[in-house]
Amino acid sequence: MNPYYTQPPWEFLLTASRNTLQSYELSRLAHAANLRKELGALLDQYLEENTAAMLARWLMDQRERTVLGEETASAPAPPENKGRRASDNFLGDRIVPPRASRMRT
Fold first, then answer.
1. Which residues contact residue 16 at a Cβ distance below 8 angstroms, ignoring those fewer than 6 apart?
2. Most exposed: 49, 54, 69, 76, by fewest CB within 10 Å?
């Protein structure tokens, strides 16, 4: 039998008394609350594991940058940009056509 069977027992529910239906309702709500607690615990565990993995990735990246920084420190410095920034060149080679009028004549 599947422990995750979600279909309610229709024949039982249709013939059950009010007290039985109330008991069934409370048991389902209690089960839902327990599942929610489990989900919260799993989510916390997931976040901790993901954070640990991201920390390891960050440390690897920092070590690579340190090694690359030491290698490029001995290389000659690149020429100065004379006040220009990289963002000044962003899409600098594209010609932007003027906006077409939306009104038709």
1. 24
2. 76
Q: What is the pLDDT of residues 66-97, one digit of tens each?
A: 888 877 776 666 666 566 555 555 555 555 55
The model's pTM is 0.48
CA torsion sign for 58, 59, 63, 64 is negative
Task: Please report where in the chains the tokens 């070590």 appear, as a residue.
Answer: 63
**Torsion angle defined by CA atoms of residues 67, 68, 73 and 76, in that order, rounded to the nearest 10 degrees:** 150
Instruction: Give Cα 102 distance to the centre of its chain.
Output: 40
Residues with Cβ within 8 Å of 13's Cβ and at least 6 positions away in sequence, in order, are: 21, 24
